[in-house]
Write a sequence for this structure.
């Protein structure tokens, strides 16, 4: 039920041939949703799986799904998931015939990969030459030039220090992009518009690169203003000593909605590309793959300007996070194709066989607070978790479950939410419904931001670029802005919910209690506080429906009023809404998720509202002299000491959270 089933394309490899033998046991040196994704295909192919995990991941979903699981170290990735000595020992101990690695960091462990090959262990992915060549952005750019692939103007060597970075940036011309040579996922990447930002960018990018990839080398290239981020998924059959030499391009993915150079919303195909540009990009992607004798599934990333000129960005030698949208429109199981290629089988398809069937959209659901820089990490335990799999044509790739912990040690991704439709409008409508029906409690999440993006007129029209978020929300994301009609709908729903709960509290199930006097009350006068306003609301009951008067207008609110359910379907004057009541307390305060955004309301009877003005208000805490980290993380540097005088905007310390470094600055001039 988790897959986008494309029944008209069963001839593709979504159907497994049991007579095609591959491996008996495969070790997955990864965690989270991608490890779970690989295990699902292995189960379909009859392959036993071995999971590795850190001590804090002992109860993780991928550990429970695998046939075997082995702990490889403590929580930090460098001591567990990137501990190649421990991983090699697990391979020997479990006698795994193949291994699926987090190959975005494999460049640091090429000797281990070679050792695996010498011991008869097959790596699910490209050979070490391709990983080394494409994992190094400097070398990959040179290879791309030689393969006649369009590249971005810039400096092709290694930047030695901040002074050289400034000199190169001036020669190229601002703005420039500073990026880690071995980087990926937006880490070790900074945009600089002047000399000062170049020096700061060099410092943070090199530190992030060393922390995340064990390689602090940087390169600098021209920043393409107002670009679209488009990817071509590449699949080729050459593996190790095999000489088949075939390569396919599997259409494009649109990945322009980003924050901090990390993708948030992806879709396939792109609204921007025409068939000619698509073919040209695909052919250049295949040419690059053949130039490095690539043999697996990989991703060639391009930047495309407004005139449809495209430039090579990088090639990722791994299964990308957003691969499900490609699977949905082609009918291919890319994990299965990678395993088949690793075993030496030829691809069963020609370029003419690869379709664009329908439209797919993916939203990355993160444990983040979208109201802080479009998403600063949040940690905690998932106290309640319910995926929207009851919505048609929805796929959820996740590696967590109710009760899972989101910690500071790993990426804060909760899941990848994918919807599929016969066209873009249908896929977006299903995504809107899926986001409304997604229940996540215990941590902050970015559902509100995702929903606002996919319904925004600019996005719906396909007018998007990598600057979409800062252009649409120049003052930062503030949540959904209610129209007058939506405000009345929310007030009417909240008031009806309050009355339904009052009526339920009068019933005593299973108790033969006889009330002294039957309550015949059928109307309520309430006062509802929302935002900066307080609104008188009149509610009257008519069967299972409520007639609610707000702003002199009457609205009819109907629902089953199952107050124990995390989701509540409400019909307001014929308009269906799915809401979630997040919290409530005895003072009438309640939080309701409506149109993706959580709104705080206070609902009181008319009498209680009149008396509430006599209640003393709690004084707000004075935080003007305190520097408080906006997210959980590790203090990696402190730039001041007690007694120092600091000015407004001066760096106080550096916090690292989820492998990203953030400079904490003073909000005012003062003494530490």
């Amino acid at each position: 039920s988790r897959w986008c089933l494309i029944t008209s394309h069963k001839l593709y490899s979504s159907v497994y041939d049991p007579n095609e033998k591959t491996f008996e046991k495969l070790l997955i040196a990864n965690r989270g949703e991608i490890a779970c994704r690989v295990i699902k295909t292995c189960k379909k192919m009859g392959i036993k799986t071995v999971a590795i995990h850190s001590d804090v991941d002992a109860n993780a979903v991928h550990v429970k799904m695998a046939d075997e699981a082995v702990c490889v170290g403590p929580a930090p990735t460098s001591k567990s998931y990137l501990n190649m000595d421990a991983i090699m020992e697990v391979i020997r101990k479990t006698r795994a015939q193949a291994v699926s690695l987090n190959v975005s960091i494999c460049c640091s462990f090429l000797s281990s990969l070679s050792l695996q090959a010498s011991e008869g262990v097959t790596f699910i992915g490209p050979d070490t030459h391709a990983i080394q060549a494409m994992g190094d952005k400097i070398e990959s750019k040179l290879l791309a030039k030689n393969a006649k692939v369009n590249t971005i103007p810039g400096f092709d060597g290694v930047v030695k220090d901040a002074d050289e970075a400034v000199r190169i940036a001036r020669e190229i011309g601002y703005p420039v992009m500073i990026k880690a040579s071995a980087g990926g996922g937006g880490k070790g990447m900074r945009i600089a518009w002047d000399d000062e930002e170049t020096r700061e960018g060099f410092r943070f990018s090199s530190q992030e690169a060393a922390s995340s990839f064990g390689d602090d080398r940087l390169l600098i290239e021209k920043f393409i203003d107002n670009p679209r981020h488009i990817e071509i998924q590449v699949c080729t059959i050459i593996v190790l000593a095999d000489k088949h030499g075939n390569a396919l391009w599997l259409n494009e993915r649109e990945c322009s909605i980003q924050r901090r150079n990390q993708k948030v919303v992806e879709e396939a195909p792109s609204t921007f590309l025409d068939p000619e540009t698509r073919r040209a990009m695909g052919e250049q992607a295949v040419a690059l793959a053949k130039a490095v004798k690539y043999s697996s599934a990989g991703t060639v990333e391009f930047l495309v300007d407004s005139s449809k000129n495209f430039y090579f960005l990088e090639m990722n030698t791994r299964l990308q996070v957003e691969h499900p949208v490609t699977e949905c429109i082609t009918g291919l199981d890319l994990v299965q194709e990678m395993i088949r290629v690793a075993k030496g089988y030829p691809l069963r398809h020609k370029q003419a066989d690869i379709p664009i069937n329908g439209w797919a959209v993916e939203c990355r659901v993160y444990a983040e607070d979208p109201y802080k820089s479009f998403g600063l990490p949040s940690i905690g335990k998932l106290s309640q978790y319910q995926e929207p799999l009851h919505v048609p044509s929805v796929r959820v790739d996740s590696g967590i479950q109710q009760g899972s912990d989101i910690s500071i040690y790993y990426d804060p991704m909760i899941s990848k939410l994918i919807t599929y439709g016969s066209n873009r409008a249908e896929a977006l409508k299903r995504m809107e419904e899926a986001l409304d029906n997604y229940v996540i409690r215990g941590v902050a999440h970015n559902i509100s931001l995702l929903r606002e993006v996919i319904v925004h007129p600019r996005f719906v029209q396909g007018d998007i670029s990598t600057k979409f978020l800062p252009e649409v929300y120049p003052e930062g994301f503030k949540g959904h802005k209610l129209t007058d009609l939506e405000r009345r709908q929310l007030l009417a729903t909240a008031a009806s919910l309050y009355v339904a709960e009052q009526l339920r509290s009068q019933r005593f199930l299973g108790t033969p209690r006889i009330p002294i006097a039957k309550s015949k009350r059928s109307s309520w006068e309430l006062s509802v506080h929302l935002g900066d306003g307080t609104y008188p609301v009149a509610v009257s009951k008519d069967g299972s429906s409520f007639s609610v008067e707000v702003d002199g207008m009457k609205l009819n609110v109907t629902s089953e009023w199952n107050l124990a359910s995390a989701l509540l379907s409400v019909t307001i004057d014929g308009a269906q809404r799915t809401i979630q009541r997040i919290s409530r307390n005895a003072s009438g305060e309640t939080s309701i998720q409506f149109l993706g955004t959580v709104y705080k309301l206070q609902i009181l009877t008319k009498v209680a509202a009149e008396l509430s003005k006599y209640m003393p208000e709690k004084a707000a805490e004075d935080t003007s002299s305190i520097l408080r980290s906006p997210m959980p993380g590790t203090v990696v540097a402190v730039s001041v000491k007690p007694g120092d005088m600091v000015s407004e905007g001066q760096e106080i310390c550096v916090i690292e959270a989820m492998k990203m470094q953030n400079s904490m600055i003073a909000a005012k001039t003062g003494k530490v």
